[in-house]
Design goal:
Keywords: Exopolysaccharide synthesis, Membrane, Transferase, Transmembrane, Transmembrane helix. It comes from Dichotomicrobium thermohalophilum. This is Lipopolysaccharide/colanic/teichoic acid biosynthesis glycosyltransferase. GO terms for molecular function: phosphotransferase activity, for other substituted phosphate groups. It is built from eight helices and four strands, in the order αββααββααααα. The chain has about 230 residues and is mainly α. It has one domain. The strands form two sheets. The protein has a two-stranded antiparallel sheet. Strands 3-4 form a two-stranded parallel sheet. Strand 1 and strand 2 form a beta hairpin. Helix 5 crosses helix 8. The longest helix is centred in the N-terminal third of the chain and has 33 residues. The relative contact order is 0.13.
Length: about 230
């Protein structure tokens, strides 16, 4: 991570925390009244170079035992609390990650950090993702913002994520971050915020189209560019 990118991260995170402080308080009260404590959900995630850190989010799932549930969020997920479903739809549950940005665990723009259960996905060409600091905003977050709607009925959700969604997201991110600039990062922040109010960009049919050959040809070149910029 360059000095300029780190300074930008700190500036946006501080500004975002100050600006959203009243919203933090309102969301915290809403969660507490709806489903009690805890307000903040903390979970182990994989950071840059495989470093494990705890991500912060507003809790969107109810205080029940869902130990047998999939590692991913599904459409109309039974684990949602009443407030949590709204937070997830508007992405307001992501706000506490600004604290992770200040700590240096995350960047404002970067790939989504995965849980350790998906660590085996970072193999072969996808290992290049570990060279990038994970972030809140970015291409894959925007293009797959309706990810919960993409899981086919009757198919194991974890398996579908590992074999279909993760590779598509990884290829998209590796291609982008090999060429990313401060200005392109800022554009993704804006696009990600605007996207909350826009129709989903992708559905299951589009996802099933095989674009892997073209992506595969460019990903090796992208990995070389990543090594030269990190």
């Amino acid at each position: 991570m360059t000095v300029q990118k780190r300074l930008l991260d700190i500036g946006i995170a501080v500004f975002g925390l100050l600006l959203s402080f009243p919203l933090f308080a309102l969301i915290a009260v809403a969660i507490w009244f709806d489903d009690g404590r805890p307000i903040i959900f903390r979970q182990r995630r994989i950071g840059r170079n495989g470093h494990i850190f705890y991500i912060n989010k507003f809790r969107k799932f109810a205080n029940d035992d869902f130990s047998s549930a999939p590692h991913v969020t599904l459409v109309n997920d039974e684990r949602y609390s009443r407030v949590g479903k709204f937070l997830d739809k508007t992405k307001l549950n992501e706000l506490p990650q600004l604290i992770n940005v200040l700590r240096g665990d995350m960047s404002i723009v970067g790939p989504r950090p995965e849980i350790p259960a998906f660590s085996h996905c970072f193999e072969g060409q996808h290992k290049a993702l570990l060279e990038i600091t994970p972030g809140i905003f970015g291409p894959s977050q925007t293009m797959f913002r309706n990810e919960a709607d993409m899981y086919p009925p009757g198919r194991d959700a974890n398996e579908f994520y590992e074999s279909v969604l993760f590779p598509r997201k990884a290829e998209l991110d590796i291609e982008y971050y090999a060429r990313a600039t401060i200005f392109s990062d800022l554009s993704w922040v804006i696009r990600s915020l605007v996207a909350v109010f826009m129709p989903p960009p992708m559905n299951i049919d589009e996802l099933s189209k095989d674009g892997s050959n073209e992506q595969g040809r460019s990903i090796k070149e992208s990995r070389v560019r990543l090594k030269s910029t990190n």
